[in-house]
């Protein structure tokens, strides 16, 4: 199946021109980012209030909940101030988008692997480690907890992050008054790629995250919809999620 033109509605979707202009923009994204940071800080403070080492349950909660809350806030904003997430974030089903997402995600896996290898050689293995890898290191989990972490990193986490960055931020950027439509798409691609990398708050890995996010952003840019970038992100996260799963189970030592 051929991939539709960017922004072209999938079969059965209403035309964007027939819908009222959403009443949200960059302010909505900034609010969602504030919710993400505030919820992470609050949840972290609550989980650490008892002192001592973080339990497996607390690691799972502290890792997953802030991103889920932020993505949920983004969805609520599109519902209350716009036409809902399907229309406002260009989230619709397309087999062509899935296929392209898989292809670009596979490319991203290769790029990520090569980039991580190079980056590890530059900054050292300890500094190249992701924040989540550092959390699970030396803290074996039960099979159930490890599977929950794996499914979040592989499937749910990418959905939430894509809603925030290549959904909310991308759409807000694209709706600005640009001389040509393509400039809006390119600006959205560049800004969302940069903000996605910086927002992880891992300074030593920001350059690597920029490289990782390019194939994901290309899926959104080429298709004009969010599904492609979600699939590409999930593909890109698969092997790292497997590695963290094996580490969490104590099968592989880092």
From TrEMBL:
GO molecular function: endopeptidase activity
Positions of transmembrane segments: 24-47, 59-80, 100-119, 207-223, 235-252
Pfam families membership: Rce1-like
Positions of the CAAX prenyl protease 2/Lysostaphin resistance protein A-like domain: 145-239
Keywords of this entry: Membrane, Transmembrane, Transmembrane helix
Coiled-coil positions: none
Annotated InterPro entries: Rce1/LyrA-like_dom
GO biological process per UniProt: CAAX-box protein maturation
Transmembrane helix in keyword set: yes
Keyword Acetylation: no
Protein name listed in UniProt: CAAX prenyl protease 2/Lysostaphin resistance protein A-like domain-containing protein
């Amino acid at each position: 199946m051929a991939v539709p033109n960017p922004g072209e509605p999938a079969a059965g979707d209403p035309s964007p021109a027939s819908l009222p202009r959403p009443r949200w923009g960059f302010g909505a994204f900034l609010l969602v980012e504030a919710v993400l940071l505030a919820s992470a800080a609050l949840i972290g403070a609550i989980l650490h209030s008892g002192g001592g080492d973080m339990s497996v349950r607390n690691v799972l909660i502290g890792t997953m909940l802030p991103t889920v809350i932020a993505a949920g806030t983004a969805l609520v904003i599109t519902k209350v101030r716009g036409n809902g997430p399907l229309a406002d974030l260009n989230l619709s089903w397309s087999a062509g988008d899935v296929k392209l997402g898989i292809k670009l995600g596979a490319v991203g896996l290769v790029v990520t692997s090569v980039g991580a290898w190079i980056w590890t050689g530059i900054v050292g293995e300890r500094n190249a480690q992701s924040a989540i890898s550092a959390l699970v290191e030396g803290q074996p989990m039960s099979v159930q907890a490890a599977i929950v972490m794996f499914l979040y990193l592989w499937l749910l986490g990418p959905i939430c992050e894509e809603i925030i960055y290549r959904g909310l931020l991308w759409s807000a950027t694209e709706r600005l008054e640009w001389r040509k439509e393509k400039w809006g798409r390119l600006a959205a691609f560049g800004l969302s790629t940069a903000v996605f990398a910086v927002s992880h708050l891992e300074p030593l890995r920001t350059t690597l995250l920029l490289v990782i996010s390019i194939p994901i952003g290309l899926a959104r840019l080429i298709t004009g919809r969010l599904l492609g970038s979600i699939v590409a992100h999930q593909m890109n996260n698969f092997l790292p999620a497997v590695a963290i799963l094996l580490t969490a189970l104590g099968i592989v030592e880092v």
